[in-house]
Amino acid sequence: MKNLIKIKGILLSLVLIACGSDDNGDIIPIDDDGGVVIETTLTGQITEDFTLTNDVIWELEGRVTVTNGATLTIDPGTIIKAFAGSGANASTLIIARGAKINAVGTASQPIIFTSIADNIDVGQIAGTNLSENDRGLWGGLLILGNARASLSGNATENQIEGIPASDTNGLYGGNNDADNSGTLSYVSIRHGGTLIGDGNEINGLTLGGVGSGTTINNIEVVGNVDDGIEWFGGTVNVENALVWAQGDDGLDIDEAYSGTISNAVVVLGDISDHGLEIDGPAGSLEGSFTIDGLTLIGNTNTENGEYADLRDRAMGTIKNVFARGFKADSDVELDNNGVAQNFIDGKITFQSWVVELPEGVNTVNEIFVEKTGDGESTIITPSFTEQAAGWSTSGTSGGANLSNFSWTYAASKGALN
Question: Max CA-CA distance within the chain?
Fold first, then answer.
């Protein structure tokens, strides 16, 4: 770790009064109580087990990777502040294939990833100088595993978006659907999504080929430039996930992700796009996701602000949904004949949707629309809109259990009201 975690020079000058050495003869700073000085800025690669404690502010500088065989443990209540960086050197935390993260917070002591610009301090759960509209101040958190993903050309692995191709720690995918990348629980990720190239930003939480042996629950993403959470294949289940004020899509599914997302909330901000964006397999491998218990809260100020966009042979089930606060022209759309055919074949299904009707919308099934690609004609008979009357109704309640999100920054700011 000595080459991977550095200490600010001013801190060293204040606390260093003696030095010892390890078995390799390397110098170790010692404080006046005989303890090893805590070095609080993370850089480069973490190649052995390491723990972040909650008694200091940890800083993330540049692309930091936990490599194969190492485990990063983060104590409850720990705060990690990231520098912005730029391009390929945007500050990100990558959990590479074969590595693990054990970040287990609590409702009263969540683990917080945020920007170096945030004035939050040790023991606090929020600062006072940033809001959900402060985006792109650092990169994000990426967890990469060995589970299968449906990839172009039937490849078995792929480079995750946002990480340069020269960095092989950015690879995800394999053949172990039960792969275990650790545990993520009661974690809040704020103000991320640094632009690394033209139209290429980092998601708040990226899950590439993450297996079902991984535990992910009670997650919040606030104010990310790109998507809140994006799945690239994999089988990991995610429970109690909240995304607020993302710049693009709230929950984004790709490459035959085959897990279950249960009790989730997406709250659109002033520049948000879709609540859901769902793509299908990129190769011959097929997989079907489940979303069970979802609340979508719209925003009438955003230019787009759609409920959901299903594209490219999407496969899965979306059920027990409540949506409110959207514009009259917002919709749930099947984007082309590929996903429309999957609807006909029963590979994409909808169950139990309740929608608080926007002004100007007379019946709830009007929001369900079949669209077409270039040169295509609609193929669903009776129409997608007509069939939607069988699973949708107007109302004012349903969806996710919002009480499970009382610990979040979003709840403290009234975003769920």
Answer: 80
